[in-house]
Amino acid sequence: MSAADANHYVLAGAGKMGFAMLEGWLRQGLAPGAITILDPQPSKPLQARCQETGISLNPPPATIRPADVMILAIKPQMLASAGPDLARIAQAQTLVISIMAGKSVDAIAAQLPHATAIIRCMPNTPAAVGRGITGLYANAAVNAAQKARAQSLMAAIGKVVFVDNESQIDAVTAVSGSGPAYVFYMVECLANAGVHLGLAPELAMQLARATVEGSGELLHQSAPVAAGQLRINVTSPGGTTAAALAVLMGAQGLDPLMQSAVQAAYDRARQLAD
Ligand SMILES: NC(=O)c1ccc[n+]([C@@H]2O[C@H](COP(=O)([O-])OP(=O)(O)OC[C@H]3O[C@@H](n4cnc5c(N)ncnc54)[C@H](OP(=O)(O)O)[C@@H]3O)[C@@H](O)[C@H]2O)c1
Q: Cβ–Cβ contacts within 10 Å for residue 85, how many?
């Protein structure tokens, strides 16, 4: 992927995730002239970005040449209505990369009948700050060069991992796709617990937020030290942290609760598949 790249990239849907990817690609040096964006109600920042870079935004459908790479970043429920327009641009040579939660390769193929090479991805919202992680599943029609291209495109917003079978994408969705919301909720719960101990709400939130921000960064900077080891490092036997962890790690603690929550996300991803 470079300024000399002659491929045509079509981004369908440039909302939160699509726009974050676009910014990453521009940072990586993808030529604006290689990109076409389709989004029926483009945001002001997107319009401004397209104007200043010369990216083609919503050109007349008849003028759009077939895509070498089509990235689907629309909401899953929009696929059926967007399908007919996109099907003309997704031809036999097109690599289709979908980030739509839940939508199966078969469901995508049904809407884009000429395309055969399909990659399903699950990014997550830290993509907005270049610190996401994306799980990718490639169907059998995707060749090595196309896999490498998809990896490079998704690396613009963070780390990339491949999974071997499609059902694992639903597991990726449940763990890392939805995961940031679990962490944000943990901040809320930790702050709430502080309020119950008599702290002012703002102070409790400041403490909880900084704790999760700092712990995430420490985890990041400590790699490859395991999260469990970092936990052990801050847990003195008989101390305050150990007292809390006895609750969190008990039979009714966080592990079984997280398993139920992640299972619920997984089940929901499967329901959305068709
Ligand atoms: N946000 C996340 O953390 C996250 C994580 C993993 C996966 N995803 C997946 O990423 C996809 C996009 O999520 P998002 O949060 O970026 O949603 P979003 O902000 O709503 O973006 C979707 C964009 O697609 C546009 N759109 C609607 N119909 C279209 C059409 N026919 N052709 C082209 N564009 C169309 C929407 O326009 P309007 O606003 O006018 O409808 C909107 O700008 C979803 O499928 C989601 O499952 C998101």
A: 13
